[in-house]
Amino acid sequence: MNEELRMRKLYEQLIAFWNMRSGDKMSSLFADDGSIVGFDGTQENGREEISVHLNDIFKNYKSNPFVYLIREVRFLSDTTALVRAVAGIMPEYGAEMNPDLNIIQSVVAVKKGDEWKIALLQNTPASWLGRPEDAKALTKELEDAFKSARGL
Fold this sequence. Notes:
The chain has helices at residues 3-19, 23-27, 47-60, 132-149, and strands at 30-37, 43-45, 66-77, 80-89, 103-112, 115-125. It is α+β, with helices and mostly antiparallel strands. It has a single domain (3-149), classed as Nuclear Transport Factor 2, Chain: A. It has a 6-stranded mixed beta sheet with strand order 2-1-6-5-4-3. It contains 4 helices and 6 strands.
């Protein structure tokens, strides 16, 4: 498997484990000293803190699955990669996506031996202040991806 495909798979696993609501599985994708910056700016460092934080989210909040689009995979070196993606929360049946929950995600991954691990996951709200048409266009793009994934 080529390295770009491995990076895409790493990101896809991250989202799949979120959608499974498993903080333990999500945190297993991180380097021991990995970090996460949440949607609200919360920061957690280290695999154990990340696991506890994510499991608390899943325990205390209803979190619908993500729909996502990978925008770019870029290798910064032989052992460092960047994945840029956009994601939104899948709506309840019949509901519309909430553009306030759309995010820009950046993943920095490091290769140790033959294994890629996440060093940083950065979540940024895709609010695009003063640019409502851009926010609306992203929501439409994510809705189309959601419908396509569901065969609608």
